[in-house]
Write a structure and sequence with these properties.
Blueprint lengths: L1 H38 L33 E3 L3 E4 L7 E10 L5 H15 L4 H4 L1 H20 L3 E11 L1
Antiparallel strand pairs: 1-3, 2-3, 3-4
Helix pairs in contact: 2-4
Length: 163
């Protein structure tokens, strides 16, 4: 008789534990959802005063680019080259140059070639980690400053991948 009674008392305690965990999970999920709704910025609504993008010759809409010569920004072609050591590692870098005043496309091409030549001298150990990447950014910015004689105000890294 005692075995039967002890089994019956254990059964409801397991059910109560499962029910309590389920209830707490629902309360925590609801609280998280409520906090997310209160803290998240409101979704941007479309307005009638939105700028329309020009249509190209095929009738499709063309997406306006931020990096344009009209904005004083020249996006350089992607640079893909191998590193100095180990030579089997490759780097791909995309940068944009912000000019002070009217952009000089010929200067941008010279800077592009200079950055590509510099990347061939860099080893993997030099660019590892956040500090190494910051040193690389600083070195490239310094080279661009010297080459452009102050006409380029900023070098914007768009992508940086090492394989």
């Amino acid at each position: 008789m005692e075995e039967i009674e002890s089994k019956e008392t254990k059964s409801p305690s397991r059910v109560m534990t499962i029910a309590a965990v389920a209830a707490l999970t629902l309360v925590a999920g609801g609280g998280g959802w409520l906090a997310g709704m209160l803290l998240a910025p409101p979704a941007a609504e479309k307005t009638e005063a939105a700028v329309e993008l020009p249509a190209n010759a095929t009738g499709e809409e063309e997406i306006a680019r931020i990096a344009t010569v009209a904005n004083g920004i020249v996006q350089l072609d992607p640079i893909t080259t191998n590193l100095a050591y180990p030579a089997e590692n490759w780097v791909r870098l995309e940068v944009a140059l912000q000019f002070n005043g009217v952009p000089d496309v010929a200067l941008a091409e010279t800077i592009h070639q200079d950055i590509a030549a510099y990347l061939k001298t860099v080893s993997l150990q030099q660019v590892q980690g956040p500090r190494g990447f910051q040193y690389l950014r600083d070195d490239i910015q310094e080279r661009v400053d010297l080459r452009s004689e102050g006409r380029v105000t900023s070098v914007m890294f768009r992508t940086f991948v090492i394989q």
